[in-house]
Write a structure and sequence with these properties.
The structure is a homodimer of 226-residue chains. The first copy, chain A, is mainly α and 226 residues long. Chain A is 85% helix and 0% strand. Chains A and B meet through helix 2, helix 3, helix 5 and helix 6 of A and helix 2, helix 3, helix 5 and helix 6 of B.
Amino acid sequence: MQRHFEEQLEQLRERLLTMGSLVEKAVHLSVESLEQRNESLATQVIAEIEPQINNLQLELDDRALQLLALQQPMAVDLRLITSTMKINSDLERMGDQAVNIAERALSILSQPFHKVSIDLPRMAEISEQMVKDSLDAFVRRDSELARQVVLRDDEVDQFRDKVFGELIACMIKVPRCIQQSLDMILVSRNLERIADHATNIAEDVIYVVEGQDIRHHAEARANAKP
Amino acid sequence: MQRHFEEQLEQLRERLLTMGSLVEKAVHLSVESLEQRNESLATQVIAEIEPQINNLQLELDDRALQLLALQQPMAVDLRLITSTMKINSDLERMGDQAVNIAERALSILSQPFHKVSIDLPRMAEISEQMVKDSLDAFVRRDSELARQVVLRDDEVDQFRDKVFGELIACMIKVPRCIQQSLDMILVSRNLERIADHATNIAEDVIYVVEGQDIRHHAEARANAKP
């Protein structure tokens, strides 16, 4: 019974990582489709990757619920399973955000090209890194890395405000850039939400490893800084 | 033991409804602050209501986890508890969106007043009704009402696209409206997300009542239509 449980738990963990890889790929390709003005990458995210993510979400919830029902786990295993359900939900929503970015990329591609020089690529880079780090923290049960992810969330918010200011200035100066600038603002919001979900995952990792719930507690978040 | 469990389950349900009422209030007041240009309503959402929502989120997760650990519930009770955790998470995120709307209202208040005639109030009305109906469906275990919520999500998405088009047209015609129009576009996105979370809750209600997971299955969603 115990060995069977361990195996099932390991399978749950592996499937969550498969889902994580797919979401990382979706986020990466959606940003690439925008930066390289590549329609087929955007279509790949929308038509191929997201349906796989959705299927995995259902499978993972089902596996987690089976484990709760049949094995009645305690303490750390219980925290791991309920956190897996939360991480699963955050990953699926990241996938939705990647689809939104891909849709914006398609919208931008349909417009005449205006080079708008803003900090979006850097913002995308940080958000992608947060996704990667939050999943690595989960794999390695590394609550220190998870705390670093939580702290980077503010950096993304600062980029969001900077991008917003730059694009408004651009819209006022060059009205023919309005549509494209708007698309870019919405992409920056999607990236911000991806970073938020990565932060949620990092908070779940800290909870699984340390049993400490740091959501909404600024003082606990700051513990990463010596 | 069984009676104690029933009592605790009932308490969990009641606290979730308290949280639901607070979130409904936050959404309603944030929209009012925007429509009535009322700064104190916006501040109330940000400084008073959201911290209460955050505290309740932690309390509810804690209660749910205790029930899972100590009572090891089966079947419908297990679905109810894990769904409560999911609904809890959706409610907290709705609270975040209400805060974002309140912040946009404060931004709009700081700008010179330009009357922008768009469908935002109607969109707000539908989103608020979806929040209310999803919670009523939970209270009454009414999967039919829940299905209606799921179906209304498309209506909100249509409003979002309509508002977007109207505001872009306005920005191009009257450049001094750019900042305010942008704020309105972001509010329409916040309302869209609130409607999405209400849809998630409705899907959870269907799952609790019928044991059927309708996420990502368009054909099951359509069952509400005869």
